[in-house]
Amino acid sequence: MVEKGAAYYCFCTKERLASLKTAVGNADEEEEEAKEVKEIIKYDKHCLHLSKEEIETKLAAGLPYVIRQNNPTEGSTTFQDAIFGNITVDNDELDDMVLIKSDGFPTYNFANVIDDHMMKITHVVRGNEYLSSTPKYTRLYQDFGWEEPIYVHLPLITNEEHKKLSKRSGHSSYEDLLEQGFVSEAIINFVALLGWSSANNTEIMSLEELISEFDYTHINKAPAVFDIVKLRWMNGEYLKNMEFETYYGLALPYIKEVVKKDLDYRKIAALVKTRIETLVDIKDIIDFFEELPEYDYLMYTHKKMKTDTQSSLVVLQELLPKFEALEDYSEAAIENIIMTYIAEQGIKNGQGLWPVRTAVSGKQSTPGGAYEIMNILGKEESLRRIRKAIDLLSTNL
Fold first, then answer.
1. In CATH, what number does 167-241 get?
2. Taken in order 53, 58, 61, 65, is the CA torsion positive or negative?
């Protein structure tokens, strides 16, 4: 490149380069921001005009040097991008970037072009913030006489506040999302739809479908918003439709983190499968299996269920001996006891089920009904909790 004039030796000192820097700032001098002055430098091609003899003399003297790219100052450079089309930049905007540093090592930008060519890279995919640096790469490819790869500059992905994703946002990397309980299939599906959509606007797509339909040339130019709410919904759909054994393998560590008792983990997993959006959600909705939380007796008063503390106490007192006498503690048997009692008393389903579910869970919202919870807890523990509820209600009447 030096021999053909596409690059040249530069012996400029740090002091001379510093003299080329231009202070830029529009903040009020009295403001703190004025102290943070940006510096812009464009090399003035000073060393381009050194004669061959001058260069040899400086090299012989052991003066430190770098090798710079020799970009033209007239005309323009055009490159094609798969998303943004043809982009043309005036050559007088291009800086003569350093290719070889004073320590003899290549700069990243120079090595990157060489590596891509040597590895036969066909497509360069990166963020559109690198559009401005691409003309320099184009000049290098042209100087070497190499075929340029296809550029795909992707639009920015922002958070809900339209700011660039960061580690502080909690979802800037694939690993972040896995730690938050998202599954790989949902992550891939969601990310593929950031700035792109299928011809028929299908949202839930298998990897095979994405491979078949995805077309990067149809990605939008505008920034895409990383909608965490949509990702949670999509992840929930994947969990609902996932084969149980696969799902169970993913859910088990989260269950064991909360429930230490010897309970049927498979039943707990099945209970929450269609009620969660991420695997992390499991922990907050099953904690009552490990220990009954402290709760307010006023929870038994529920307008929609048409219950109050007095009616709930009666229901629990009358059902307790029936549960105590029950030998078959299966879901079906427990359900039969409760539903038979409701029919005999002529009360609404909620009037019979709400007090029991509240008693055995201590929560207003649970992933399953009374008989499912009682079956998992087992007879001894569920009866203990019902007796505790009776005492709580009796004390507060």
1. 1.10.1160.10
2. negative
